[in-house]
Amino acid sequence: MSRDPGNGGPPHRAPVILVVSPDERSAEVTIQGHTRVVTGNSPKETRNAALDLAAGYAAHLGTSVLINARDANGAWQLIISPTGVVRAAGGTEIEIAAKRAPGRGRRGRRVVMVTAGGALAIAAVAGIGVAAVPLLPGLGPSIQVGPGEDPAVTLEGRSAPPGFTTRADWRLPTLPGTRPGVAPDGSAVAFIDPDEQVTVVNPEGTTLWSAGLPLPPGDIEGAPTFITDGQGDLGLAVTGNGRLWQWPAGGGEPTELELPSGSRVTFAGTSPLVLGEGTAQVPDDGELRTVAIPSGYGAILAEPGRVLTAVQDGPWRWVGLDGDTTEVEPQAPDGAGDIAEVLTGRSDHMIVRWSAEEGDQEILAVHDSGDGSVVAQTPVDPALLDGARWLANGSVAAYGPVIVDLDGGSATVLEGFAPGSAAGGFVYGEAAGAPVAVGPDADPVNLPADVVRPWGVLDGRAVIIADGDLYALSPE
């Protein structure tokens, strides 16, 4: 099989079929005969979700994939690379001009696919979260290696990610078409096994607990996600069919919550946040509790007992479930004028674009979400930030082509870099059309076209999926 890094080589022979519904609130994605339905609250969300699946399939194969896309306006062919870069089949990458959403800045995230004048416009942006979704058969037996023994499992046919070897401490079979979730602290990984059980294992591959799924595996939206309860213990959550299920730490019976019509669940924080039309809710004592969001603010994420909210060009606020509010005024970076736009945020950091006191460029700053202090900053052409999203793992992060050393407190613009995912202390993406991995030093490491990207790191082991099996690769 040809291994195309996404720079114009032939795509994989089995195309992805992508059909967007007339109302653009759902799309069917068919990969090798298996159809998944994705949904979104807007055309942008629907198309992003559909392309996420196609990007994961391309990453799994290690080669570009042809997409036969169709919506109410017509049909087109696209090609998506293993790093999530989309281009027109037989054409070049085309930048789009998305409509400005109400209440959003002029440089908000762009629609990945829109129709205009009867032609499809696509953006080769880093907003597509590339995930190595296993969509091929080939489940193998579970093989585990005891401490101190020579590894008996070797990853074959794929190259290991930087810092890791093809030797695996263990391998476990998963259900094709599903993907794993790795605990933020690297203490566990959750996956769906061939018996359609959600299973949680520790870094040694030993099962901590397992349970039957409350819904068909194909209806799960995304991957099992670790969440934190009020005591700091890690539970697990899945969503699908308009419901949210939460297992307590250690397993047991999950709590089932029916989601309001038209709402969506985000796991940007350590707890689920249910967003509806102008509303924000969080699970609390077996039910959804509405959080009083300040007027003009939007909810970004949830942590146990509080929700992070923000406005486009001002301070952000942490809102408690009891209504108590803590406002955080961001510190102005060196050489900055006023806030141009609060771009996004996570539990630890807020990403803000500032005007510059001098020159045509602006300043991108990473702030501590708790006290507003500047973690890192760099001058940047704001046009380079179009379509960007925040990716972080360990001490390295990226917002579009801006690489951030979170520990060292520096930020570097790596022009031409399009990030796709972050894990194992690297941001993975493309530079000049070739696959690369970038660490905190912002020095790209060239990768083989068939490199497998980790989902996360499990106590020093890279968690990857290849041919339907879950591997824990040993470090170098």
From TrEMBL:
Keyword Transmembrane appears in the UniProt entry: yes
Transmembrane segments: 111-136
KW Transmembrane helix (keyword) present: yes
UniProt keywords, alphabetically: Membrane, Transmembrane, Transmembrane helix
Highest taxon above the source species: Bacteria
Name of the protein: WD40 repeat domain-containing protein
Protein source organism: Nocardiopsis sediminis
